[in-house]
Amino acid sequence: MRAMQIPEAAPSFAGLGQVGFGAAIFDMDGLLIDSEPFWKRAERESFAEVGIDISAEMSRVTAPMTTAQVAAHWYAHRPWQGPSQRELESRVVARVAALVSAHGQALPGVRETLSACRALGWRVALASNSPLSLCHHTLDALGLRPAFDAIVSAEQVVRGKPAPDIYHFAAQRLGVPAGHCLVFEDSVSGTHAARQAGMTVIAVPSEDQCFDGAQPAPHWVVPTLVALHGAAGR
Fold first, then answer.
1. Does residue 223 have a cis peptide bond before it, meaning omega lies within 30 degrees of 0?
2. pLDDT per residue over 172-220, tens digit each?
């Protein structure tokens, strides 16, 4: 593939299609679905069963972690009796899945963005720190699974985000060089992972994420995915 020139102007699909990307890779939580409230509720209820009261501040500390890392973190700080870390992790994931089924909705611009990527002939992957089973469940609940050529989880690599492993793995699954992958992320840690993997990043910050001074920085920051589609996407 030829070398790409990344434009400095605000991104739109009219322009992105001219750059030379061969694939788009999407984060899930906070980008495709506003699932952070689901995770907070599931963790609060699950850890309460073993005597740990998860405050909002405590949730912010563990937000970038995988589910397994969250369970290990709190067991190290406040060891409990009874269910194993693995069992508690499973309880959290089951609660999140139930909330996704009951209340989950795709965020604005998600369907249009996936359609635009497919129309450009790009390969499309999901790369999430969430468990693989929950990735499949969420895409099915939102009716989005047919849009993806590959679905990868931090469970399948040595290190989750902010390490670049999951993005390297996603590019490998798609058969597209990392330098020709466009990543859509909502978090600072996910952006760090994608940039470390040598990819181009559009950040769509979720409510609790601030990219001011973030290094490495995303190539572009947009308020919502709708902004990528101009007047037609509004």
1. no
2. 999 999 999 999 999 999 999 999 999 999 999 988 787 877 788 999 9
Q: Candidates 3.20.20.60, 1.10.150.240, 3.40.640.10, 3.40.50.10090; correct CATH number of 36-103?
A: 1.10.150.240
Active site residue 27: yes
**For this structure, is 53 an active site residue?**
no
Confidence check: pLDDT of 234 > 60: no
Give the active site residue among 27, 149, 165, 186: 27
Closest CA to 28 of 184, 222, 213: 184
Instruction: Given the residues 29, 149, 165, 186, select the one marked as catalytic.
Output: 29
CATH domain 13-34+106-233 topology? Rossmann fold (3.40.50)
16: phi then psi, degrees, rounded to nearest 5: -60, -30
Instruction: Give pTM, 2 decimals.
Output: 0.90
